[in-house]
Automatic annotation (TrEMBL):
Residue numbers spanned by region Disordered: 63-150
Keyword Acetylation: no
Transmembrane segments: 6-26, 38-58
Name recorded for this polypeptide: PLDc_N domain-containing protein
Any one cellular-component term (Gene Ontology): plasma membrane
Stretches with biased composition (Polar residues): 137-150
Topology in the lipid bilayer: Multi-pass membrane protein
Pfam families in the cross-refs: PLDc_N
Record-linked InterPro entries: CLS_N
UniProt-annotated location(s): Cell membrane
C-alpha cells in the first residue's frame, strides 16, 4: 500500500516539475519576475520540487485578476473582414440603384412637364377660339336611362 502512494507522489511531482519547466521555457524573458529566465530553469532542474514551487510563487508572471489566460486575439481589419466587405458592396449597389432610379424619375418628370406644355399649347395652335369638332360623327344621343335615341 505504501508503494502505491510513493509511486503516485513521484508521478505527481514529475508532472509538476515538467509543467514548471515547460512553463518557464515558454514564458517570454521580459515577463519573468525576480531572477533571469535561465536561472529559473536551472533552479527547476537542480532543485526539482522546490525549484518548481519557487518558480510558481516568485518567478512566473502574474495574471491580472479575472484577466484572460491567453493573449486576446485581435480582430480582423476592415479590409480583411469578409462580412464588412460584403456589407460595403451591398451599400454600393444600393446607392447605384438609387442613383439610377433618381435619374429615371427626373427623366420621367421632365417628359411629363414637356407633354403638359405641348397639350396646353396644342388647342391654342389648332383653332384659336373655335370649338373643336368631334372626331366621331356616328355618335348617337342617349337618354338619361342609357337607351339610345333615334
Amino acid at each position: 500500500m505504501g508503494m502505491r502512494w510513493l509511486l503516485t507522489g513521484v508521478v505527481v511531482a514529475a508532472a509538476i516539475i515538467l509543467y514548471a519547466l515547460f512553463h518557464a521555457i515558454m514564458t517570454p524573458a521580459r515577463s519573468v519576475r525576480a531572477l533571469p529566465k535561465g536561472v529559473w530553469i536551472l533552479a527547476i532542474l537542480l532543485l526539482p520540487v522546490v525549484g518548481a514551487g519557487l518558480w510558481f510563487w516568485l518567478g512566473a508572471p502574474r495574471r491580472a485578476p479575472g484577466g484572460p489566460t491567453r493573449p486576446v486575439q485581435r480582430g480582423l481589419g476592415p479590409d480583411d473582414d469578409p462580412e464588412f466587405l460584403r456589407r460595403i458592396e451591398t451599400q454600393r449597389r444600393q446607392k447605384a440603384r438609387e442613383e439610377k432610379l433618381n435619374a429615371k424619375e427626373s427623366e420621367l418628370k421632365a417628359r411629363e412637364e414637356r407633354l403638359k406644355k405641348e397639350a396646353e399649347s396644342k388647342p391654342e395652335q389648332e383653332g384659336e377660339g373655335e370649338d373643336p369638332k368631334p372626331s366621331d360623327s356616328t355618335e348617337t344621343d342617349t337618354t338619361p336611362g342609357g337607351a339610345p335615341q333615334q
